[in-house]
Amino acid sequence: xxxxxxxxxxxxxxxxTNKHSGKDLPLDTRFELxxxxxxxxxxxxxxxxxxxxxxxxxxxxxxxxxxxLDDIEARWFAEGRTEIYGIPLFRGKPDGKPFLQRFPxxxxxxxxxxxxxxxxxxxxxxxxxxxxxxxxxxxxxxVVVNRNLNVPGSVYQRLGWHTDGLRDLFYLRxxxxxxxxxxxxxxxxxxxxxxxxxxxxxxxxxxxxxxRKVYFxxxxxxxxxxxxxxxxxxxxxxxxxxxxxxxxSPHTGPRSLRRSMYVPYLTDEYQPKGEHSRTPLYHYLGxxxxxxxxxxxxxxxx
Length: 302
Description:
Blueprint: E1 4-6, E2 12-13, E3 30-31, H1 39-48, E4 50-53, H2 59-78, E5 83-84, E6 87-88, E7 90-92, E8 99-103, H3 111-116, H4 123-129, E9 134-135, E10 144-148, E11 159-162, H5 166-170, E12 179-184, E13 194-197, H6 206-211, E14 226-228, E15 235-239, E16 244-247, E17 258-263, E18 265-266, H7 281-298
Parallel strand pairs: 1-14, 2-3
Antiparallel strand pairs: 4-15, 5-6, 7-8, 8-10, 9-18, 10-17, 11-16, 12-15, 12-17, 13-14, 13-16
């Protein structure tokens, strides 16, 4: 399979066309989210492990979400927060100014975000996860927003190859399907960086999931990867068992900004977090690595 980009200029596939199998549709297909998941869409997801739905949110909604994030950031800075419910904040210093680059549990601090992620339009997406799904506002890391920015002082410019089943693999068991549902705020073409994934890799065996890439360390392009291009308001679904990464932007400054919101749809046992929740051990390693990175950037090494 040759590398391809999911093009924002491709014609949006209409639901219920019944003209082809979803397995045969081009990898750059952009779907329209209707009141249910069509057979084509389900087949495409089963075969390739991802879906792109065009402009599910309006520009006005995206602008309001961005304002809510600014308000949350100002509140957390004023309160001197370094973590939320045990999850550390990714806090960079672009141009020497504090800038949050990963927001956990956003819907716990914004009524607008809480209502937005529960809107009826997302019901078909929730159905992909299972029956009786819930939004995990206070579970896992909650509704997370990432802000990738390529400037000196940024701690979140890119993310290496990984799957989301690392914990399961540690216990020598195959990960179950975990669908990542993202709302994208910005226009991101292949040349701008962004999400890369290897279609079909969600069906790989245990050994491939363990050893195909060096988790989080490897950033090299893969000949089978695709670049997922997005427009503001697009919604993406990708299976966490896919090998995927985030390519850093070649641009600097505001042009490099890439914002995405990920909503946890859960069906398993309710496991809420709160102000007294402990920080998972792996986050301490992440904190140390970010501090080292910032020190090297300050010295001009990176």
